[in-house]
Amino acid sequence: MADREIILTPEGYRRLKEEIEYLSTVKREEVAERIRDSRDFGDITENSEYDDAKNEQALLEARIYALEEKLRAATVIDSGAVSTETVGVGTKVTIQDVERGDVTQYVIVGSAEADPSDHKLSYESPVGRAIVGHKPGDTVIVSVPQGAKKLKVLAIEKA
């Protein structure tokens, strides 16, 4: 596993545990059933159904292992200790694109939980790195693929 720190919110920790539980029970049983069924197709040495099912099993076990390692290495932030003085993991920040006037809210999370389409931004992303540590009223410049973007921190609250 990578030496990178894995930070999770309590919600992210719960979702990760739920995924491991689902994969370890429901999905494992589905794959085992598929392996049992594929044996009925004849000689397993020339059985593509069996090979596919065994490959799926290997991928599933690798995924479970990786998630369990991530969970073991994770640091779960204490939501009660999250400060709203500055932007940090566990905060919901409202930012404004100074040039365009667009206002957006993001929850700052660790990279394992990041999902920009759900407004969950990693503190390691370009925007996350630029705004972490800043206070409401601060303006930061972020380097993005389209060039430089000027963002203003409008508000910070607990996520």
A few lines on this structure:
The chain is built from 3 helices and 7 strands; from the N terminus they run E-H-H-E-E-E-E-H-E-E. It is of the alpha/beta class and 159 residues long.
| Oligomer designation | single chain
Strand order of the largest sheet: 5-4-3-7-6
Q: Helix/strand/pairing class, anyone?
A: alpha/beta
Count the E strands.
Answer: 7
The major sheet is characterized as:
5 strands, mixed
Based on Cα principal axes, name the global outline. Answer: elongated
CATH class category name of the largest domain: Alpha Beta
Going by CATH, the architecture of the largest domain would be Roll
Number of helices: 3
* Low-pLDDT runs: none
- Sketch the topology as an H/E string, one letter per element: EHHEEEEHEE
Compute the average pLDDT.
Answer: 89
Describe this structure in words.
This protein is of the alpha/beta class and 159 residues long. It has two domains: 6-76, Helix Hairpins (Orthogonal Bundle), CATH 1.10.287; 83-158, Roll (Chitinase A, domain 3). The protein is built from three helices and seven strands. It has helices at residues 10-38, 48-73, 126-131, and strands at residues 6-8, 74-76, 91-97, 103-109, 120-122, 139-144, 147-158. It has a five-stranded mixed sheet with strand order 5-4-3-7-6. Strand 6 (139-144) and strand 7 (147-158) form a beta hairpin. Helix 1 (10-38) runs antiparallel to helix 2. The longest helix is centred in the N-terminal third of the chain and has 29 residues, at 10-38. The radius of gyration is 22 Å and the shape is elongated. The model has no long low-confidence stretch (mean pLDDT 89).
